[in-house]
Amino acid sequence: MTSRVLLILSVLMCCCKPETLKIGAIFDIEAEVKEKAFQLAIDAVNTKRTGDERYLEGLVEYVPCDNPFKAMVATCRLVSNGVVAILGPSSQDNAQMVQTICDDKDVPLLDARWVGRPKGPTISFYPHQGVLTRVYMEVLDAWNFQDFVVLYENDDSLKRMGELLKGYDSKEHQIVVRQLDKYQNGNYR
Question: Given this model, what pLDDT does residue 110 score?
Answer without folding.
Answer: 85
